[in-house]
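Minutes, project huddle
Topic: does the predicted pose make sense with pyridoxal-5'-phosphate bound?
PN asked that the exact inputs be recorded in the minutes so nobody has to dig through chat later. Recorded below.
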Amino acid sequence: MTNAPLSLSFNPAGIELDRRQGLSRQLYQALRMRVLDGRLASGTRLPASRDLAAALAISRNSVVRAYDQLYAEGFIEGRVGDGTYVAQLPQAKKLSTKVSTGFSTGLSTTLSTNWLDLPVISSSKVIHSGALGRVEKNHLALPPSGPPRAFRVGVPAFDLFPFEVWAKLNAAFWRKPDLRQLCYGDPAGDERLRELIAAYLRSSRGMQCTAEQIVITSGAQQGISLCAQLLVEPGDGVAIENPGYRAAGHAFAVAGARLHGVAVDGEGIDCNELASYGDCRLAYVTPSHQYPTGVVMSLARRLELLAWAERTQGWIVEDDYDGEYRYTGAPLAPLAALDRQGRVLYVGTFGKVAFPALRLGYLVLPPGLVDAFSQRRAVDVRHSEVSTQAVMAEFMAAGHFQRHIRRMRRAALSRRNTLLADWPRDIPGIGSLPSVVAGLHLTVGVDSRAREQALVESAANVDVEINALSSYWLPDSQTPLDQRAGLVLGFAAVPEADIRAAVKRLKKAWR
Ligand SMILES: Cc1ncc(COP(=O)(O)O)c(C=O)c1O
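Predicted holo structure (tokens), as shared on screen:
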């Protein structure tokens, strides 16, 4: 809540909208820009939607949609019965809003000079010093394979993927391939696909990115791994969310990082704790939907994190693995859309919209990093295989991708609702269900680690897959074991009937 004087008021003069383009998006961007550059101070009262609509000669719906998005992202707040105000954002003025022109530091000093000197991993042992021992100790758990079942985490409703469309596009590509595409290509990936991804991110995420900033990867994991290889020197501190995505931690540890598990509270990663690690060169975060707790990072925290990166010349790796799945309003603007200093590397994947085995993802990089990342890809694999990229490009260009996202969002929402409606409320030791505003999974607390293990085990005995929340923590965490306990359930992997059947089996097994 803001205590600012009510005399601050907003003058819509100066907002110019192009009537040929989406009006609510333009209004949202104009207001957001004014908050970030300080023209709209904290506490400024915004006009009622009806008045602003009249002043700008646009529909009230457009204003309401723009306000909704700004509200969801924390730029504005409402006081019941008392209007809408610009939120308290102490850091806002520190961020310049001019578009990044690249880097304030040269590549030779910002990139790891060791990037060709990777540690060697044998099947039984990691041969390298220090932090790498952790990989062995923490044992790299592979994601479960086999047909999806309730409640596999990290898997979308890929039973709904339009395989026929994909097969047709694939056949069309191979029937008459453009021979130029069959020679060695650009290590950064297929140019048309990169153009289409950039356009998609500009319209769906408000990112001001171009195709030149995009490097195609083999899924998000390879994007994260490239960041580790290129930005981390052995011995550098790397902050990861704790609990968090352990596979990212492993990628940084393999590059020789000293991992710092940083606590996550109701607003996201704890930036005070992050700042206390003086050796941190990079922070890996999942702001749109923290993995696995589901917390959406607040705007204030996003600004704090960006300020940390600017202050320390640190890097932020933003993993937007499931940003397509928001059940109210549009996807939130990522950190990369707020970054003006070229400190954020954005990781995206097609794995949560299409299917994980597609192994197709991308990085959106600050311009000065693109060459180094492309070269690294060229050294590793030359570039990604051509047909998957070309078929995905056609899939996007022909409108199938957008249609499919909408279908997948509806399906995930319906499967979420089924799980929430059927979930047993009276099982001893299990906390109450959270509200699930985004993503493909939910996390529910359990009162002890022993109880967590028993619940997971008895679920497995009736063919129900549930992850233990405690397995997402770094093993040497300070938080007591019992406080790390919980259940992580993916709700999108199987249709509603299978969800109901699985819950039925769980109810029996747990009583
Ligand atoms: C947080 C997070 N990031 C990245 C990924 C992996 O994505 P990909 O399959 O594209 O490597 C996952 C998969 O579950 C994930 O949960």
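Observations noted during the meeting:
- Residues 403-510 form a domain with the Aspartate Aminotransferase, domain 1 fold (CATH 3.90.1150.10).
- The radius of gyration is 23 Å.
No decisions taken; revisit at the next huddle.
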